Amino acid sequence: xxxxxxxxxxxxxxxxxxxxxxxxxxxxxxxxxxxxxxxxxxxxxxxxxxxxxxxxxxxxxxxxxxxxxxxxxxxxxxxxxxxxxxxxxxxxxxxxxxxxxxxxxxxxxxxxx
Amino acid sequence: xxxxxxxxxxxxxxxxxxxxxxxxxxxxxxxxxxxxxxxxxxxxxxxxxxxxxxxxxxxxxxxxxxxxxxxxxxxxxxxxxxxxxxxxxxxxxxxxxxxxxxxxxxxxxxxxxxx
Lengths: 113, 115
Hints:
The structure holds two protein chains of two kinds. Chain A is mostly beta strands. Helix content of chain A is 0%, strand content 53%. Chain A has strands at 4-6, 11-14, 19-25, 32-38, 45-50, 54-58, 61-66, 71-76, 85-92, 102-103, 107-112. The N and C termini of chain A lie far apart (41 Å). Chain B is mostly beta strands. The interface between A and B is medium-sized, with 25 and 26 residues.
């Protein structure tokens, strides 16, 4: 069973704060990790991907991967109300073709002005 | 570059009918994956196609099938629709030319309602 776990939230932060979203996965050999943002009624939008241990930064977003702890996180700096959405963690486990992703249930983030 | 397109965007069908959904990937993308999203189960993988071949299939009954054409466009079909098939069906494409180029980009989805 390849599981991806996220805190369902909701997570509520004030505008300008750092939002921290967490994800754990069960397959130790997992290779690729993705964060998607999904607004209500819309499809998921890829915002970050990370393949190696450590941090990866892109604008206000930082993805952090720790394979030893089987943990991946997403930090959103200077959070804006427009960041309010559900954030989905996705993992490509070892043994799967690279075209198959396992998704967590998502964390709902609300950024209040 | 145009994104992933899916047609139709909305569909209402009756139990027992069948339905075909279409997906056009981003130009140059060779892999197409299909997912079902429901409030109860979240996002679940249906199948993936690469170069007209199904490479992986999720845990869905045989009523769910798909195919990919030589231009990478893909269709999925659901036969003998059940009420539980009501969901958002998402197609995602990826370049798939290197182990680290499997970032998947989703289309807008097809909202299927079965009555």
